[in-house]
Amino acid sequence: MFTWRRRYLSSGTSSDIMHVEDIQISPDPPHVGKSVEVTGHGQVSSLIKEGAYADVNVKSGILTVYSQRANLCQEARDLGWNIQCPVSAGAYTFDESMTIPSNIPRGKYIVKVNAFTVDHAPIFCLQTTMDLST
After folding, report:
1. What DSSP letter does each residue of 33-78 carry, written as one string?
2. pTM
3. What 8-state DSSP symbol labels residue 87?
């Protein structure tokens, strides 16, 4: 398992509600059409209520290939994540398995996620590069 500490950039600020401490992925690099395990650790400083959302943008080079605003709480429910809204202040571990869709073209992608509360306060901001060449 490889720790993304050197591969992801937390571009948030000290006033963000969630401070991501580390993210791990296995296998690394992930493979198109295969399952990937993602584990992360972080601290939440105040309540995250229903209605929190994330803007997810994926680029290949300078081209935006995916852009969506996602309801974080609804996505967590739909995917059966181990963290559900409302999220109280405290330490958390995110440990989920997901499959990289087989219809994603192989290549290198820049993924940026900006998450906000229902009141538009910043929860976190992360950016990483993913190599899906295999």
Report:
1. TSEEEEEEEEEE-S-B-TT-EEEEEEEETTEEEEEEEEEHHHHHHH
2. 0.84
3. B
Q: Phi and psi (nearest 5°) for 6?
A: -95, -5
Dihedrals phi, psi of 20, to nearest 5 degrees = -80, 125
Cross-strand bridge partners of residue 98: 36
pLDDT digits (tens, 9 = 90+) for 73-109: 999 999 888 889 999 999 999 898 888 888 888 889 9
User: In sequence order, which residues have a C-beta less than 8 Å from that of residue 95 and are 6 or more positions away?
Assistant: 37, 38, 39, 82
Q: How far apart are CA 94 and CA 113, in angstroms?
A: 16
Separate counts of helices (H) and strands (E) for the chain = 1, 9
